[in-house]
Structures are given as C-alpha cells and as structure tokens.
What we know:
This protein is α+β, with helices and mostly antiparallel strands. The chain is built from 26 helices and 36 strands. Helix 21 links the parallel strand 25 and strand 26. About 50% of the residues are buried. Bound molecules: zinc ion. Zinc ion binds next to loops.
Amino acid sequence: MRQRLKIGPAFDRLLILTLLALGTLVSSPEAQQKITSPREYFGFELGTDRKIARWDRIVDYFALLEKESDKMKVLNMGPSTEGHPFLLVIITAPRNLASLDRLREINARISDPRGASDAEIESLIAEGRAVICQSMSLHATEIGGTQMAPELAFDLVSRSDEETVRILNNVIFLLIPCFNPDGQIMVADWYNRTLGTESEGTSPPWLYHKYAGHDNNRDADFINLVESVYAAKILFREWIPQAYVDHHHMGGYGARLYVPPYSEPLRPYADPLIWRELSWYGAHMAYRLEEAGKSGILNAAQFPGWGHFGWHWITPFHNIAGMLTESANANLATPLYVHPEQLRGSTLQFPEYEAQTTFPNPWPGGWWKLRDIVEQQKISSWAVLDIAARNRETVLRNAVLKAKRQTERGAKGKPAAYVIPPWQHDRLTAIKMINTLRLSGIEILQASKEFFAGRVLYPAGTFLVSLAQPKMGLIRNLLGRTLYTDSPWTRDRDGSPLRPYDTATHTMAEFMGVRVDALDEMPDGSFVPLTADIPMKGKVESPGAGYLLDGRLNASFKAVNLLLDRGISVRRIDTPLPGFEARAGDFVLAPEPAAILAAVAEKTGVDFRPLDRLPGQGVHEVARLRTGLYQRYWGGNADEGWTRLLLEQFSFPYITVMDAEIKKGNLNARYDVLILPHDTTNILMGESPEAYGGRMPIYPSEYRSGLGKEGVEALQSFVEKGGTLVALGDASNFAIEKLGLNVRNATAQASPKEFFCPGSTLKVAINNTHPLAYGMPAEGLVLFWSNPAFEIIPSAHNERCETVVRYPERDVLQSGWLIGEKRLAKKAAMVSVGLGKGRTILIGFRTQHRCQTHGTFKLLFNALLR
Length: 866
Ligand SMILES: [Zn+2]
C-alpha cells in the first residue's frame, strides 16, 4: 500500500489509525496475514472433554502467533524450577509495541509520581496506556486458565471489531499464560496416564510444584521460588500494572464463577480507592458474563479482602487492583455431574445456594465441563481489558491518585518510618530482608551520616524505610505489628471465631527475626536511596591461629555445610572459655587453604573472624547427622516440599524417605535423624480416609501412602536404638500418640471459643544454652498456626523431657489473633523427649514455614548437626 500510494510513514500510520478507528482493519496489511487458530493448531477446541493441551505445545503456539501477528511479543522470563520456559506474552497495538520502552517508563512514573508536576502528570496520562496483567493456572490442577489463554490471545490478535481495536490501542496486556509450567506438564501427563481408569480426573498424587505445591500462591512476599522472582519482576519492578487478575478454580459444588470484589474482612492500609476499583472491574466482569447468558456468577463473597500474601492478595498493597476469579472445578478435563441438592453456599456472605443480589442467577445443576470454565474465564478476562480500554485516562489517573495518597498518608501517619538498625541478632538475615523488599519495589534509604531518632543514635550506613512512598500499605503490613480483626465479620453466629483464609499475620520482619524500630517521625538526617541490592559477600580476615563463624547467623550453617563438603573439620563451642570472645553455638576452625575459605565466605556472606588461639576445651567436633525427610502421597505435603527447599538453600544433605522404606525397618543403618513435616496423624497413618469426609481421591495402589502399624513400629525402634525423630508442627501429635510420649498437647480438645490462634507470631523464651537452641536469642518470636503446645506428664523420669522453647506467662501475642492465651501460658513450645537411646524432638510451632520463618530456622538446623 505504501509503495503504490507513495505516501510517507506518518501519513501511512494516520491512515491505518483511521481505518482502525472505523473498524475496517481488514484492509490494513497485518490483517491480511493468516493467523492460525487454536483449533487448527491443537486439532481440537481448547476445553474439549478429556483433552488438555500440554505446556510445550502452548509455548510453540505462542511462538507461532508472535510470528504471524504484529500485535504480540513473547518474552521468555527464564526457566521454571524444573527448566520449562516461563512466558510473558505482551499483546497490544503494533504502534504500542514499537514504543514499549517509552510506555514502560511512563507507567513507572505514573506508579510513583513523587516530584512530578501536575502538567507532567497530565502529559503522561495523555501519552500512557493502561497496563493490565492477567495470569493463568498458578495452581496447576486449576487448568482452565492456561487452556483459555491461547484462545484469548488469538481473539485479540485476529479480531478486527471496534471493541478489540479499542483494547489493543489503549491497553498493554501482560499475559502470563501459565504461572506454573512444571505443574501444568505434571497435571497434563498424569491426566493422560490415568484417562479411562478409576483415577481419571484426580490431581497428581504428589506436589504439583517441585517445592511448593499449592503454596506457590503464598510466596509473593518472600519470593522464594524462581517463578515468583519472574512474577515479581513483572508486577513489582518492571511494569506495576494498574490491574492484575489471577484466574483460579474452586470447589465444584457452589457458584460457577466467583468474580471480584472480595468479601469481608478487609486487610488494612491499602488505598481505599483500590477496593472501589475491585468493585468496578468486578461489576463489569459480572455484567459481561450475565450479558452472555452465563449463570451461577457470584461476586463480593467467599474470598475475603484479608487473605494471604499471594499474588492477587498482595497486589492491592502495591496499588495494583489485584483480583482473582475462581471457576467451579470439573474433574480436570473430565465433566462433572452436579445434582441440584448438592449445590451449596459458603460462610462468607453467601450463606445459602439461593439467589441474592451478588448472585442473581443461580446455576441449576447438571453437567459441568472444562469448556464451560474456558468460556467464563475468557469473558471475565476480556471484560477487564474492555473496561480499562474504555476508561484509559481514568485508570491512569487513579493510579497516580493511589500512589500520591498513599505517599501522603505515609508522610502524615505514625509510624513515619522503620529503621532496620545495624544491631541485629542475625545481620545477614536482615540484609536478605532488605533485598527482598527491594525486589518488591520498595524504596530503601541508607543514612550517609549518623542520626538521632529520639534518644537513639544510629550510625552512618543504617537502613531506613520511609512510609512516604507509594507502597506504604505493603511496608506497613510487612514491617509493622499487625492484629487480625475480631469483629462480627470474623465471628460465626454463635460467636465462634471464623478461620482467616491463611495465617492471621504476614509480618515479614517478625517471621525473619529481624529487628525494626518504628519511628513516629522521619528523623533529620541525610538519607540516600539504595540503587542496587546489598551484596552479601563475606571475607576471610587476616589469618590467625584459626577462625570463628558467628553461630547466630543462619548463613553460618550453610558455610559449615560447604566446609564439611570439602572435608574441612569444624568445631562448635559448647562452653565459652573466659576471655574468649565467643558464644555457645559459634563455630571454629583451624586455618585451611585460603582459597576454599574465601570461596565459602563469598558464597555465604559469612565473615571468617581470625582467632589468636583455638579453644582446646569446651568444644566438640561438628558432624552432620544422616538426615531423612519423610514424604507422602495424597497430593503431597507442601510443608515437606518447603523443608526440602530450605535444606537445599542451606546446603544440608538429606534423603527423601517414603513409606515402603520406613516399613522395612532397620532405619538406624541409614539414618541418624528422620524429619516428619507438619501433617495430621490420620494422613500420616494413611488410615480412615473417611475422616476426610470420605472424599479421598482414588489413586493407583502404589500412590496410596501411609505409615500404618508397621511404620510406627519401625519409627519406635529407630528412636529406641538411638535415632532422632524430629516432628514439626502437627506431626508432634502423631509422635505423642503413636510413640506413647510422656507429653500432652495442651491445645487439643479446646473449642475455638476457648482457644484459637490461626497463624500468629507469639513471644517465646528460648534456652539458648541447649544445643538445640544454639545461636538463638534468649527471647524471640515463633509462628504458631493452630498447632500443639506441650505439657510434660508427671512421671518418675521427668528429666528425660527437656524444654527448649517456652511460652511466657502473659502477653503472648505479638501479631495475628489469639483467643485463650491461658492455654499457652508457660507451656512448652519445643521439647526433646528421650526414648530408649534416642529422642524425639517436638517443635510445635512452624519453625521453617514456607522458607519464611528465618528467625527459627536454626532450631531445625541444630537438630541435624552433632
Ligand atoms: Zn487456586
């Protein structure tokens, strides 16, 4: 066209724009290009009964679409945990794609307009595009989103109607077509393998993410998983979209689709406009679904505004309208028949499966298919793009407003800032926290000179987080004490407390054992924003008679493991000698090849402090205990997966142990320590699945785990012959009951009105002269999530029980929610119980929860060393 008419590029673009505006895209050059439809490519319509398109095929399809269309750019963010591509697909008009860098700069400025003039902001709004991100199938068994994504992309790049053109012109759509590529492949392969068998439509019997399983949606604050790093880069650093939707599935016996907004209660400190935006987007989604004749659409119920810190729930605190949809499940790609009387409501603002204002059109029951899910999700995804495109300026102006108002609130409010002082128990963990906050796009300041706050003098180099910044709400939730709301929204009609969706607090600093000082006013001083992560490279100081590694640092355990891997001998101080600057639990070693030590210091961040002499007594040689980590089926246990990740992060060797091996017995030949991750007694035993409502999935016999009587006998014999059994969280109940320990769980058999503590940080006293608590502070915080606490039953051998960690008499709660403090007062939180020649270590709280509770990692690490 250009050559024939001999017109300049500017005019050409104008002509195309005019044609676009007229909805006559057919005559523009790109529209004449052939775009392959998903049906042609995959050979079936996505969502067809009993068919799942596998991720590798979907990746290839996006590559093909990118080739065929000029409206799409596919970015490979990098490999997933198990090496599959994690894609970001950007869909927008060609001219937006051509100036993507400029549009991203504008978006960044809109998200943080500090210092910009009104005129500058107006011109940014005029030039900018609405940025909308949507992600699919984070939970891999919730397959609808990833099956829908190719069709949504195809519609966007191939349709030429006015609505599509408006979306492409006004919106930059960031599509994450699969948030968990590894899980998608596992589920697709498991589905095809079990097709036509009794197990057809079941979830895989193991975790559908190597480490996290379903918990991959609990990682948007700590960002431990590689997939989370990619998502954080997209959502928190590189783009900061104005809205984000994560598409999920829920149970199959209620509403057909939940769309925003959330229900009560509300997590505090987000900009109020956010909650209005969620209603606004959600109303349009519900409206478009109703318009399309879809029944069973529910909003403002079932998913509370105070949830976990997964992606859709944390984004509102980044000033992103963070939302989710939840489709009723089928049995993966196998249809599910639902009888009308099987349909039910839920406690949160949807008490009965009957018409209500937020659910005006109940689905009557019948067959429910993957294709139904695909269609609903596609309409809801489209609706978000459509309303943003129709209101581009409003969307951008609100982004500016949210950022400005949150900054102003932070500047005026109390606290005004959090100082992360240099005097930390574990200095390297504090640095890790700062770097994680930076990955979330939080601005960290560093004092270039010493400064006073009140009467405290903080030295130059001290880090400080001002609340006068757009992500104020996130900072407040992560660093400040947070009490969960106790109100009619969180109590049942009989007054019983309602379980929060996840833990009742997500206070990062408390979980990590990092001290932060809240300041009511921003101190006078000279502060400079950090522009890069704080490097964590330790050094080997001038050689002496030996070296000391600080036992308070979690990273010292990694250093010790790396040294032991190289055959270097390490000793641990039990009794500090007079005049010797060391603590019980510090590690010492003789001078060894400098290059090895330097490499370990650099890798771990740990400094090797020179000693003028090596202590000859009051020390013992460190040996790693041969560690087994119990793993089960029934969908896997996320706590087991996270424990694996933790051990790998700190270079602890371990072996995964399953039932068959345990039942064979003779465990002492191979192991010194066996870890039972947090779990219920029933599922550990593999007995009476009826206890789970009789709804245990039907798995092939080789995937039905359970320790059973033989397993219990083998574990008992293992401990009696000198082994150590470490029971984490609720697995303590299993150990108490099945091994007949002289310990009682003080929280058992209490009604929720008497005792309730759903994921809270609690104060504890720690006996850090006990080797299991070496390196710990004398007082600290633990994460308690409806777990056991211990009372020692009087016996002739009370001395066989040692209390390592104990709850105080009063004021036990730091953050979260605690009803019935008396149940915990003065009770043991962690005990070691001697049995025969061995012992069982019961850690009642969540010592290594999701690789987040850095403040208590050492209580597990110590159990793995001698
Ligand atoms: Zn989900």
